[in-house]
Amino acid sequence: MKATDILGLAGAGTVLLVMFEMLRRHRLREKYAVLWCVVAVAVVAVALVPGLLQGMADVVGVEVPANLLFFLASMVLLLLSVQLSYELGRLEEKTRTLAEEVALLRLEVEQQRTGDTP
Amino acid sequence: MRGMNQPSDARVLVIVPAWNEQGSVAATVEEIRATNPTVDVLVVDDGSLDATAAEAARAGALVCRLPFNVGVGGAMRAGYRYAIRHDYDVAVQIDADGQHDPRFLAKLQHRLEDADVVIGARFAEGSQTYHASFPRRAAMRMLASVMSRRAGTRLTDVTSGYRVANRRAMEVFAAHYPAEYLGDTVESLVIALRCGCSVTQEPVDMRPRTVGEASQTPVKAAVYLARVFVALFLSLVRRPPRELRAMWRESR
C-alpha cells in the first residue's frame, strides 16, 4: 500500500467519523450527511482498489489517473455549492414570507388592542 | 366589478413602503390624507433603524413593521396582502420620499376603468428631458420598448414606483412579488401581464426627491444597463411561480 493510499483512507475515515459524530449530536441533517458519506466511501474504494481509478481513467481516456480524481472532486464541490446556494435562496424566501406575516400579525394585534379595527 | 373602481365608492388603501425615511414619511402621509380624505394609508416600515414607524403613526397612518429589511418587494407584498385580507378594492403604491404627488391619485384611479394596473409615468410626453448618460438612456429605451410591446400599449416609465392596482392585480401581487433589484418594478409588471392583467400609464408630474438623486457615473449607468437587461430577460423567460400557475394558465 502506497503512502497516498493511506492518506486517502485517513481522509475518508475522518470524514465518516465527523459525519457520524455530527449526526449523533443533531448537528447535521441526514440529507447532507448522506452525500458526504457517499463521497467518503468512494474515496475508500479508490484507495483500497488501485486498479479502479486506473481503469476509469482508461475508459474515459485520461492519461494521468490523478487528473480524473481532481476533475471528479472539483465537480462534486461545484455541484454541492450550487446546491447550498439553492437551499440558501429557499431559506431567504421563507424568511421573507415569515417576516411579512409577522409584520401583518403585529399590526392586527395592535389594532385589536386599541379596538380601532377599520 | 368595474363599477367598484369608481373613485367615489371604492375602498382604497395607499401602501407606502418606507425604509429609514423619518424625515419625509410624516409629510407624505399627511399630504395623502389631506388630498384624498377617504383613503386609508398603510406605511410598511421595512426594518428602519430610525423613527420612521413612529413618525408615520403620528401622521395618522396604519403602520406595519417588518422585523428586518426585506426590500421594496417584500414591503409591497405585505401591503397587498393586508389589502386583500381587509377587502380593499384598490391598492396604490406611493413612495415615502415625497416624490409622488398624491393629487394625481384620483386621475390614476379613474384609469382603472379600462386597465388592471395604472402606472404614474414621469416622462410620458418626453417632457422632462432628463440629461442621462447614453447607457442609462439605452436602458430606459429598451425597457420602454419591450414592456410596451408586451402590454400592447405605450409604457414609457415602467420603473416608476407610483402605481394603482385593482382587485385582480392585487391578488397577483399579494401571491407573488419579486424582492430582487428591478423585480419590484419591471418583473412584477411582467408577471401581472402574464397573469392576464392589463397595464396602462397616466402621465404625472414628479417632484424632485428631498434626498439627493443617485449619482450617475458612466460606469454605474453601464452596470444599470446590464442589470436591466438581465432582469428583463429573466422576467420574460421565467416559469410562473408556484402560487400563480393557475392564473397564468387561464390567461393563455
Topology of this protein?
The complex is a heterodimer of chains A (118) and B (252).
Chain A: H1 3-24, H2 30-48, H3 50-60, H4 65-114
Chain B: E1 12-18, H1 25-35, E2 40-46, H2 52-58, E3 62-66, H3 72-85, E4 90-93, H4 105-110, E5 117-121, H5 134-151, E6 163-166, H6 167-175, H7 183-194, E7 199-203, H8 218-237, H9 245-250
Parallel strand pairs in B: 1-2, 1-4, 2-3, 5-7
Antiparallel strand pairs in B: 4-6, 5-6
Short note summarizing the structure:
The complex is a heterodimer of chains A (118) and B (252). With 118 residues, chain A is mostly helical.
Description:
The complex is a heterodimer of chains A (about 120) and B (about 250). Helices cover about 85% and strands about 0% of the residues of chain A. Chain A folds into 2 domains: about 1-50; about 65-120. Chain A is an all-alpha fold and about 120 residues long. In chain A, helix 2 packs across helix 3 and helix 3 (about 50-60) packs across helix 4 (about 65-115). Chain A has 4 helices and no strands. Chain A has helices at about 5-25, 30-50, 50-60, 65-115. Chain B is α/β, with parallel strands linked by helices. Chain B has one domain: Spore Coat Polysaccharide Biosynthesis Protein SpsA, Chain A. Helices cover about 40% and strands about 15% of the residues of chain B. Chain B contains 9 helices and 7 strands, in the order E-H-E-H-E-H-E-H-E-H-E-H-H-E-H-H. In chain B, strands 3-2-1-4-6-5-7 form a 7-stranded mixed β-sheet, with helices on both faces. In chain B, helix 1 links the parallel strand 1 and strand 2. In chain B, helix 5 runs parallel beside helix 8 (about 220-235) and helix 7 runs parallel beside helix 8. The radius of gyration of chain B is 17 Å and the shape is globular. The relative contact order of chain B is 0.15. The interface of A and B includes residues 96, 99, 103 and 111 of A.
